[in-house]
Amino acid sequence: MKTDTIAAIATAISDAGIGIIRVSGDEAVSIVHHIYRDKNQKDVLEHYQSHTIHYGFIITKSGDIIDEVMISVMKAPHSYTMEDTVEINCHGGVLMMKKILMEVIQAGARMAEPGEFTKRAFLNGRIDLSRAEAVMDIIHAKNEFALKTSVQQLKGSVSDKIKTLRDQILYEIAFIESALDDPEHISLDGYEKELSEKTGDIEAELSKLLSSADDGRILKEGIRTVIVGKPNVGKSSLLNLFMGQDRAIVTDIAGTTRDTLEETIRFGDITLNIMDTAGIRDTEDAVEKIGVERAKKMSEEADLILYVIDSSEALDENDEIILKLIEGKKTIILLNKSDLMEVTDKNTVKNFYHKNIDHNGQFTEKDDSISLLRISAKEKEGLDELKALIEDYFFHGKIVSEEELYITNVRHKEAILEALESIRQVKQSLENHMPEDFYSIDLMSAYASLGRILGEEVGEDLVNKIFSEFCMGK
Amino acid sequence: MNTMSELRERTDICVVGAGHAGCEAALACARLGFETVIFTVSVDSIALMPCNPNIGGTSKGHLVREIDALGGEMGKNIDKTFIQSKMLNRSKGPAVHSLRAQADKAEYSRAMRKVLENQEHLTIKQAEVCELLVEETETKSEDLNRTKKIVGVKTFTGTVYECKAVILCTGTYLKARCLCGEAITYTGPNGLQAANHLTDSLENLGITMRRFKTGTPARMDRRSLDFSKMEEQFGDERIIPFSFSTNPEEVQIDQVSCYLTYTNEKTHDIIRANLDRSPIYAGIIEGTGPRYCPSIEDKVVKFSDKDRHQVFIEPEGLHTNEMYVSGMSSSLPEDVQLAMYRTVPGMENCKIVRNAYAIEYDCIDPKQLYSTLEFKDIEGLFSGGQFNGSSGYEEAAAQGLIAGINASLFLQGREQIVLDRSQAYIGVLIDDLVTKENFEPYRMMTSRAEYRLLLRQDNADLRLRQIGYEVGLVSEEVYQKTLHKKEQIEQEVQRLKNTIVGASGKNQDFLIAHGSAPLKTGVSLAELICRPELTYEMISEIDIERKPLPLEVTEQVEIEVKYEGYIDRQLKQVEHYKKMEKKKIPADLDYNDVGSLRLEARQKLIAHRPVSVGQASRISGVSPADISVLLVYLESYRK
After folding, report:
1. What integer pLDDT is reported at residue B564 of this predicted model?
2. pTM to 2 decimals?
3. What is the pLDDT of residue A255?
4. Core-most of A35, B266, B506, B525, by most CB within 10 Å?
5. CB contact under 8 A, A140 and B620
6. Contact status, residue A323 vs residue A357, Cβ threshold 8 Å
7. What is the C-alpha separation between B408 and B403, in angstroms, rounded?
């Protein structure tokens, strides 16, 4: 059960020197107390005087040190929110701040709503009334934004997964509840075993989601980008263009790039981790074959694929292999060598795609996952458009404050964590052979937690599900 | 018009309708000392059960218990007139145990009529109320934004009853029409006279009406059924009464049986072949029906994968041969009904006494009501029951009781009561009705109560007796009894928590004998009861200091101790919930002044006018961010 103590990162989320995590509420002190040790390894936070600052460490449950920190304690009402407040000054890395925030949340705080510190400051009388309008605007704007980014930021596959899990959970609740409401028509005999298996599966899925949760990696580490294409279409030239220097060996002989190269580059505001690959083609050359395999593997793990096509050449069966490889990935198809005579244009690619890959699929100029762009790596044309496209893919048209993106990620994680805890509670109830009506209490909590990720309320979902799935009533 | 009666009567409160809501409402008002007139189109139809012959059932049983704890009549009345009783869900957790009794319908109705007839301050009047009389209010009260107040009612014969409050409990009678296939009659249930005039008066007052529908199955002649082809269904061996005031020894009666049989593919074929003759599928019915009571047509169409549906045959009373066919309500034409019923085993030669039919009626959109069941726009006008868009006898009675209590409190100038979602199923019922969008007759369900571990049927007295006492419907004696029970429970729970048993040979033997892990260190008796395999009763063997306590006490002790962890979690949720309920919204708040609200939220809030931030948060279309904005606005408004 979460307390009503809230936590969030108070400083800008960037790799600055120092970051601050703020915790506010009745239990701020006791929550941080649990995850803090002073330099003598003592848990002494609760004894600190108000308005003092101390040197120590944030530790995990198992006692491992996460970071060395300075902690300041401000007791109510002498703080920004006029509640007990603890501020953790830590090293400013994004990952570090996020890790500490997660510890605070696991210790019992909840993630602050956007604008909530200000809201509390206001409600507790800290900010004068003339600013009420401004406070409401802040809350409104921040929430609108957070909700939008929260939903948009979910990868399609993750959001599908969560929807599926929610559906499964709701079905089980509806089944239990329909049997409770209409015991003479619907029986729960033998259901315990069935539910036990199902919660096992759901627990495993949630654990997987949690460990693979997108840890703000794109922000911290950049967009994992893979450049693919047939040999000699200009992949390395493109990379060099990004780099501003000749790094990869570029020749006119097909198959020169045998090793994949990895480079981190700043492309305007965006960080790209670019992996150049050997040109993909069906090859008998052993060395080259390894390169192709790796390219395939990398494409699977990539956030973004840049698929380079030589627009002065026709498409062939190798392009078919590549198109299959990139199916379902965020891809920008670059029609390179726009300085030469155009043999393959956007329509050619589209038609080729429909003919060979997906006869029914959507493939438009601005598809959800595939875009087409004409460039010339040699003439340095099309780079700005490329940048705009990437921004569109990952930041919805603009580079937004990193804080917001980051927060929504932690929110997702918090919600999944809560859902997981609820499911474990169900397992516990099952092990104790509690009556069936106890299962649905925690299943419902899990359902609600996952709903928060999708921005969906519970509402009448359950009653509707009961009536649509089960034949009830006299 | 000049030939009309010019009689003018004066009373305190008028109750329109004498069904389950009207009876509770009228009794509450009269018992609280107000001169009350209850109107019915037929005195013979007081507390009529025109549909199923039972009271209670899942979550409805909870409602009856709560009505009883508050000082209502339904529980006592069914205890006098039941012919079979069962505690449903006994194998499941205590929160979902639910009492259901088969009623002798005629006796139930007669017994309730007798109570009404003998109630001081209460007058029964057979008349159709056609018009509500209102006046403009001259003073605008501080938190209410209303301009009209009720001053009386007028009957079809022209008589005016001046009064200070009116409670509308018109059930399914307003502009009622019954459908049996192609045959349509403009009557209320059981062929009773419909009330065709009041709707217009309500609409003239600006009240928004809607049209709902419900239905009932056929009644069979018992002699035409072959029970040897059905499964006999017995009542419980030990009967538990509904009312906390009924002595359990007095309800251990000889019970009658019900019977279970099933539809089959033949039945379904007949239904499918004649769907075009069903008024619902032919589009003749315009009202919305309850999903909980689907007609057999609906079941066959929506759950086409099911090859059979259960059919319960239930007696309508001891002095009648009529049998209720539960599970097969229908609005198909008579010839199809007969053919379809006759495919069911045991019903091959059945004779229908009354045909199944569907009924349509006018009711209101209950969002026009406060949680007190008073109309937001008209002072002194209250309503309850199916008129408010609910379904079921128990739901009706619960609202009738609350409307009756609040009309009385209103006349006393006292603060009206609102049961919240953490206090009672009645609270959930009314909050859902007045807050959420309901598109069908609302039925209570245990899944609607989010704090149901706290809202058990076994502790309704502990939850609500005090409120009934403060209102004035529960006697001092009964209240003191409840207080004593509470004290005994608390003391025993404390004793179990404080009594530590050690790892002595006797204790270890006891645990091993019951398949429970032996002790390593001393534990409290409470901890032992928490073990799934042990009960309060079982550990009496090693609980040497135990003194005998009444069953109603030990039952509570066991539940409180055994499910403490879960109950504590719900209590914490309730704490959070109550915080938001306590933040009141002034009735005259202009949402157009609240900047930063999203348009949808603004419109919904204007339409609903919620009384608290908590209620606002349950309106669909109002987001948590809107609630934050509202909180900030209210804070600055307050200052």
Report:
1. 93
2. 0.79
3. 43
4. B525
5. no
6. yes
7. 9
A-chain residue closest to B61, CA distance: A181
C-beta separation of B205 from B132 below 8 A: yes
> Beta-carbon neighbour count of residue A63 at 10 Å?
8
DSSP code of residue A254: T
Using DSSP bridges, classify how beta strands B352-354 and B183-185 pair: parallel, antiparallel or unpaired: unpaired
Which helix (H) or strand (E) segment holds residue A249: the answer is none
A119 contacts B628? CB cut-off 8 A: yes
Structure tokens at B244: 């906390």
State CA A57 to chain mean position distance.
28
CA distance B633 to A129: 10
User: How many A×B Cβ pairs under 8 Å?
Assistant: 134
Q: How many residues are there in chain A?
A: 474
Record the tokens describing residue A460, joined without a space.
Answer: 């009448």
Instruction: Identify which of A214, A211, A232, A213 has the alpha carbon closest to the alpha carbon of residue A223.
Output: A214
Kindly determine whether residue B291 and residue A440, on different chains, have CB atoms separated by under 8 Å.
no
* pLDDT at site A437: 93
Strands B36-40 and B122-126: parallel
**Cβ atoms < 10 Å from Cβ of B478:** 18
Whose CA is closest to B357, among B50, B34, B82, B24? Answer: B50
What gap in Å lies between CA A402 and CA B204, rounded to an integer?
58
pLDDT at B143 > cutoff 60: no
Q: Cβ contact (<8 Å) for A437 and B93? A: yes
Q: Which two tokens stand for residue B44?
A: 């013979």
DSSP A271-323: EEEEEE-PPP-----HHHHHHHHHHHHHHHH-SEEEEEEETTS---HHHHHHH
Q: Are A453 and A411 in contact (CB under 8 A)?
A: yes
If you measure CA to CA, which chain B residue comes closest to A137? B596
Contacts of B291 in chain A (CB under 8 A): 467, 472-473
Rounded CA-CA distance B291/A181 in Å is 13
Could you tell me the CA-to-CA distances from B52 to A180, B27, B104, B259 in Å, in that order?
Answer: 20, 24, 11, 14
Q: Are A81 and A72 in contact (CB under 8 A)?
A: no
Close Cβ partners of B331 (under 8 Å, ≥ 6 residues apart): B179, B180, B181, B215, B278, B279, B280, B285, B295, B297, B356, B357, B358
Note whether B445 contacts A181, CB cutoff 8 Å.
Answer: yes
Alpha helices in B169-218 (DSSP H): 198-204
Among the partner-chain residues B299, B623, B632, the one whose CB lies closest to the CB of A123 is B632
B361: helix, coil or strand? strand
Angle of helix B393-412 relative to helix B460-471, nearest 10 degrees? 30
Angle at A87 between CA A83 and CA A89, to 5 degrees: 170
Which residues are registered as beta bridge partners of B37?
Answer: B14, B123
CA pair distance B567, B559, nearest whole angstrom: 9
Contacts of A119 in chain B (CB under 8 A): 628, 631-632
Chain B closest CA to A442's CA: distance in Å?
A: 10
Q: Which residues, including other chains, have CB under 8 Å from residue B167's CB and lie 6 or more apart?
A: B13, B14, B15, B16, B22, B25, B26, B29, B382, B383, B384, B400, B403, B404, B407
Say what the pLDDT of residue A405 is: 41
Positive or negative: CA dihedral B243, B248, B253, B259:
positive
Q: Which chain A residue lies closest to B534 (C-alpha atoms)? A: A432
ipTM: 0.90
Judge: A177–B446 Cβ closer than 8 Å, yes or no.
Answer: yes
> And the tokens for A343?
């043999």
Task: Show residues of chain A in contact with B566, CB under 8 Å.
Answer: 438, 441
- Please tell me which of the candidates A114, A181, A438 has its beta carbon nearest to residue B566: A438
Q: Which two tokens stand for residue A363?
A: 């493939």
